[in-house]
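Input set for joint prediction.
Command: fold jointly, output tokens.
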Amino acid sequence: EVQLVESGGGLVKPGRSLRLSCAASGFTFSTYTMNWVRQAPGKGLEWVSSISSSGSSIYYADSVKGRFTISRDNAKNSLYLQMNSLRAEDTAVYYCAKAVRFLEWLFDYWGQGTLVTVSS
Amino acid sequence: EIVLTQSPGTLSLSPGGRATLSCRASQSVSSNYLAWYQQKPGQAPRLLIYGASTRATGIPDRFSGSGSGTDFTLTITRLEPEDFAVYYCQHYGASPGTFGQGTKVEIK
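tokens >
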């Protein structure tokens, strides 16, 4: 059974940093593109970042480019999102999402999400 | 970047009814790379439909997708209580995988 478990969310002040993690199991993690998708309170879904299976291809939404860094450790079956210079508008539930093989932007499994609140 | 516009914003229906949700793209969606997701309150999204009309694993056949080009439809026949949720369409043919703003299907 595919499982994605996010952690690392919490309350943080504007301008500070936070690192999210996603622990994957139930599939061969090292062979799939992985993504972060976020959802602000009461709002829709916003794709944040994507990393290919080897980590060689990385993409970011314009809203986070230069502030967020996605990475992965295939030996640990883990995905990460380093979030720096956080802003109030980054407040959201952050989901880890597995892509379908060869369809990097189609997400077939999602974690339960971790809430990030940016507030002074 | 393709922009997806979903309508209506909210659909009020009774259990047993039929829901018709629309997703319109700002330009043609190549290879019908259009997906639908369901999200219930407090839960993660769940993939329902991909390729505009192919149901994902375990999705009941009361859910069906149709359309091509710029106009796509998700139809839910015989609404069950667990179907009342928010539904998002997504274009996944190219970076980034943009989502529509969502349609809420609520109990009338």
